[in-house]
Design goal:
Blueprint lengths: L4 E5 L8 H17 L4 E4 L5 H7 L4 E3 L16 H7 L3 E4 L8 H14 L2 E6 L5 H5 L5 E4 L11 H4 L1 H11 L6 E5 L5 H9 L4 E4 L1 H4 L4 H19 L4
Parallel strand pairs: 1-2, 1-8, 2-3, 3-4, 4-5, 5-6, 6-7, 7-8
Bound molecules: glyceraldehyde-3-phosphate.
């Protein structure tokens, strides 16, 4: 992952799939290339093959199941997303919670397959216990702020600072902050508080000009990282 991490969760909006999904991904790709940075797109499973081919950005699934290959109707397995072209996946998003043992089993599989992983948690007390399972990153999001337009950076900065303290106990795992991120200032504040980047959905997926929103996020994230002197 490249800092500042900008992870855009397409969720299941009306423009998250089909031609509209490809269009928004391409607009984001263009901005990302302009700033020589990387934006991760976490997309509906049906969009993984086409977006992996059509854009140069890292494409993630939004969830995987941890069942073994076999008789598991309706499952989305790590092997399947890898074959479809995904670079990684979200796990345990607040809109798709799974049990701790399922997170553990999924991470073993993902790591073995060389896939990246972002485990979502809703409070800082879960950061270290999840980080020791060796995901690529933890995404902390207070659920009550998701989709609210009120950012974690402004409304609950202590969630980020506490999570930053916890992640420092497990070197090599990134910390991403999300929920309600709406503008560059929210990104700047999250990164200045110590996050490696941000996770976002509605501010981009509902925007008339998503590329402008993403540009604002990238510029603010880069500025904050440069001020921290911590960019890679
Ligand atoms: O995965 C992304 C988050 O749930 C954030 O959603 P939001 O930006 O709409 O608050």
């Amino acid at each position: 992952m490249k800092k500042p991490i900008i992870l855009i969760n397409f969720k299941a909006y009306e423009n998250s799939f089909g031609k509209k999904g490809v269009d928004i991904a391409k607009r984001i790709e263009k901005i990302s290339i302009e700033y020589s940075t990387e934006v991760i797109l976490s997309v509906p499973a049906t969009m993984i093959p086409i977006l992996s081919q059509e854009v140069s950005l890292p494409i993630y699934a939004q969830h995987v199941d941890s069942y073994p290959l076999g008789a598991h109707t309706g499952s989305l397995l790590p092997e399947m997303i890898k074959e479809a072209g995904a670079k990684g996946t979200l796990l345990n998003h607040s809109e798709k919670r799974i049990r701790a043992d399922e997170i553990h089993d999924a991470l073993l599989r993902l790591n073995k397959l060389g896939l990246e992983s972002v485990v979502c948690v809703d409070r800082y007390e879960l950061v270290e216990p999840m980080a020791i399972l060796r995901p690529t990153a933890i995404l902390i999001e207070p659920p009550e702020l998701i989709g609210s337009g009120i950012s974690v950076s402004k409304a609950k900065p202590e969630v980020i600072t506490n999570a930053v303290k916890e992640i420092s106990k497990v070197p090599g795992v990134f910390l991403i902050a999300g929920a309600g991120i709406s503008n560059g200032e929210d990104v700047y504040t999250a990164v200045k508080l110590g996050a490696d980047g941000i996770g976002v959905a509605s501010a981009v997926m509902k925007a008339k000009e998503p590329e402008k929103v993403v540009e604002d996020f990238i510029k603010s994230g880069i500025k904050a990282m440069d001020e921290r002197n911590d960019r890679n």
